[in-house]
Design brief:
- By secondary structure, the protein is of the alpha/beta class.
- Helices cover 43% and strands 14% of the residues.
- The chain has 2 domains: 197 residues, NAD(P)-binding Rossmann-like Domain (Rossmann fold); 239 residues, Rossmann fold.
- The chain is built from 17 helices and 15 strands.
- The protein has an 8-stranded mixed sheet with strand order 3-2-1-4-5-6-7-8, with helices on both faces. A 7-stranded mixed sheet has the order 11-10-9-12-13-14-15, with helices on both faces.
- Strand 4, helix 5 and strand 5 form a beta-alpha-beta unit.
Length: 440
């Protein structure tokens, strides 16, 4: 089989590389000529563990090709996947579908034989129908079908998620299109992966519902973390106590500075807007969005409190800038709120991230970017852990204490235990646990 993947961003690149690993001939299309040149040289423009090796292997096997020419990509393709960005639209929070609709127009211009047109991008209900209308209006009589095949990829674990998914969702109007997509995913039959075949509209809504539910779990545990701090309870024990209930589950019950990334922020907002317009507002999701926005600002108060009530004229070392570990993605990262707010309060920032500093420099101003965690901490008044990279999980606490002007560590990911920090003599603030003010 052969497919075309429109968009060589995170979703398109991972999906295209993984399909080629399945033995499918894949042509990825992108308008960015420099990116295509890099990819054809087997240089991955994003950081995702294992992705560059996967690209290299399949480019060398001639199953994976990158081009700016859509007509070349679509020639003899059984399916065309639209995997372009759908960011939040400025001003109203709706998903910006301009890239999707532009892709649909270009697909119509190059459509020849029967092809399944698949939306891989996360799109609101009704987008597939509009893509179909655009193609039919531009090319009457064309033979094609529309399908929705939402992705469920976690950054940092995307290849595993694609190769060993917990489910595949296929939304379409007829059996012919469903059969094409089922054949593409046939290698997953050995794993007995559930394939959910449903309507176009339901498939589009499933992705939003899934992300909104997970965002709600994150926000729920963050709310309880604040309550634990007020009532002298421990959020980690609480999360374990409820997560062992099979009906709840332990995943996404890790308290922190709020969710970020390429999916949860924009998808929760887009769903809330869609639901409002449909006359069935999702009050829970609206509240989740509001709480998460405030959560990041609340972390600045925690840092200030740890520093004696003010960060003015103090140097703060920040460890971790990306929204999560094992990615260089800065989109809606808590650091993009926390650092500027600390700067507004008079703090000077030194920062380090294992993979995210190149991207971070595009968004953060007046930050001293360091070559390692200890360089960032040297001479600082406090250190704040925002992202739980493995490199920060076993810091030499004796060295940390010797480098800091005051032994203050604010751990927004709870990667250290209280007894360890108490023994080391730190002023230690974490999330949903008691505060230690025994530093000397």
């Amino acid at each position: 089989m052969k497919i075309a993947m429109i968009g060589a961003g995170y979703v398109g690149l991972v999906s295209g590389a993984c399909f080629s690993e399945f033995g499918v001939d894949v042509v990825c299309v992108d308008k960015d000529e420099n990116k295509i040149k890099q990819l054809n040289s087997c240089v991955c423009p994003i950081y995702e563990p294992g992705l560059e090796n996967l690209i290299t292997s399949n480019v060398n096997s001639k199953r994976l090709v990158f081009t700016t020419d859509l007509s070349l990509a679509m020639k003899d393709a059984d399916a065309v996947f639209i995997a372009v960005g759908t960011p939040s639209r400025r001003g109203d929070g709706h998903a910006d579908l301009s890239f999707v609709y532009k892709a649909a127009e270009e697909v119509a211009a190059n459509l020849q034989d029967y092809t399944v047109i698949v939306t891989k991008s996360t799109v609101p209900v009704g987008t597939g129908r509009e893509v179909k209308r655009i193609i039919m209006d531009q090319k009457p009589g064309a033979e094609f079908d529309i399908a929705s095949n939402p992705e469920f990829l976690r950054e940092g674990a995307a290849i595993s998620d694609f190769m060993r998914p917990d489910r595949v969702v296929i939304g379409t109007e007829n059996k012919r299109a469903a059969d094409v997509l089922s054949e593409l995913y046939r290698p997953l039959n050995l794993l007995e992966t559930p394939i959910v075949k449903t309507t176009l509209e339901t498939a589009e809504l499933i992705k939003y519902a899934a992300n909104s539910f997970l965002a709600t779990k994150v926000t729920f545990i963050n709310e309880f973390a604040t309550l634990c701090e007020k009532l002298d309870a421990d959020i980690q024990d609480l999360a374990k106590g409820i997560g062992l209930n099979g009906r709840i589950g332990s995943k996404f019950l890790h308290a922190g500075p709020g969710y970020g990334g390429s999916c949860f922020p924009k998808d929760t907002l887009a769903l809330a807007k869609t639901a409002q317009e449909a006359g069935a507002p999702t009050k829970i999701v609206e509240t989740v969005v509001d709480i998460n926005n405030h959560r990041k600002v609340e972390m600045v108060d925690k840092v200030s409190r740890a520093c004696g009530g003010s960060v003015e004229d103090k140097t703060i070392a920040v460890l971790g800038l990306t929204f999560k570990p094992n990615t260089d993605d800065m989109r809606d990262s808590p650091s993009l709120v926390i650092i500027p707010e600390l700067q507004k309060s008079g703090a000077k920032i030194k920062a380090f991230d294992p993979q995210g500093m190149r991207e971070a420099k595009k968004f953060l101003q007046n930050v001293v970017f360091c070559r390692g965690p200890y360089e960032a901490m040297d001479g600082a008044h406090a250190v704040v852990i925002i992202t739980e990279w493995n490199a920060f999980r076993a810091l030499d606490l004796v060295r940390v204490k010797s480098l800091l002007k005051t032994p203050i560590l604010v751990d927004l990911r709870n990667i250290y235990n209280l007894s360890e920090m108490e023994k080391a003599g730190f002023i230690y603030y974490s999330i949903g646990r008691r505060e230690l003010r025994i530093g000397s």
